[in-house]
Amino acid sequence: DKNTFANDGCSAACQREIPSIFSVKPANGVANVCKNAAVEITFTGLMNLSTLTPSTTRLLQGVAPVAGSIQARYVDSDNNGAMDQTLATIFPSSVFADTTNYSVEVLGGPSGVKSKYGAELDSTTSCGTAMNWSADRCISQFTTGTKLCKIDKVTIILEKDFNPDSAAYDP
């Protein structure tokens, strides 16, 4: 029995699943995280990208927010041509401190992140097994190591309307 949400103007037949967090990297409780790591949060469905902001999706050292940026996009998790998940990536502005505890928080409720259809994170299913629910948010914690890690992957995301033959393209 899935948790569903039907407040997007549709009938009961088109109820939408309440969003949940599929995975978080670095994983909850892991130690020796590279000091130059980014944080990735994958949601099981399509989220309202405008709700994934620094105030709803936070990286903290203690209670202090870590400066950085958030990029969110839809992904095709099973390569079948249909976007079915949302990936939010937090890029810290600088490397993490040595052997320091950090936490990742995803705010739920009326002021938090929402699905594409307006459903909010909730305490019953939203954190999945990737994070823990506390008060009104999903929380994950990790501890850094002392090393910078080799970059093993670079992803370039081209906008849908990207056209290298257009007059606006200037290499």
3D structure, described in words:
The structure is a single chain. This protein has about 170 residues and is mainly beta. The protein is about 0% helix and about 30% strand. It contains no helices and 11 strands. It has strands spanning about 5, 15, 20-25, 40-45, 55-60, 65, 70-75, 85-90, 100-105, 130-135, 135-145. The strands form 3 sheets. It has a 5-stranded antiparallel sheet, with no helix packed on it. The chain has a 4-stranded antiparallel sheet with strand order 3-4-8-7, with no helix packed on it. The protein is globular. The relative contact order is 0.25.
Lay out the secondary structure:
Elements (H helix, E strand, L loop, with lengths): L3 E2 L10 E2 L3 E5 L13 E5 L13 E5 L2 E2 L2 E8 L9 E8 L8 E7 L24 E3 L2 E7 L28
Antiparallel strand pairs: 1-2, 3-4, 4-8, 5-6, 5-9, 7-8, 9-11, 10-11
Total number of helices: 0
Runs in which pLDDT lies below 50 for 5 or more consecutive residues are 162-171
How many beta-strand runs?
A: 11
Spatial extent as radius of gyration: 18 Å
Tell me, rounded to a whole number, the average pLDDT. Answer: 84
Q: CA-to-CA gap between the ends?
A: 52 Å
- Strand fraction equals 25-35%
Largest sheet: 5 strands, antiparallel
SSE run: EEEEEEEEEEE
Task: Please state the structural category.
Answer: mainly beta
Strand order of the largest sheet: 6-5-9-11-10
Helix content: under 10%
Shape: globular
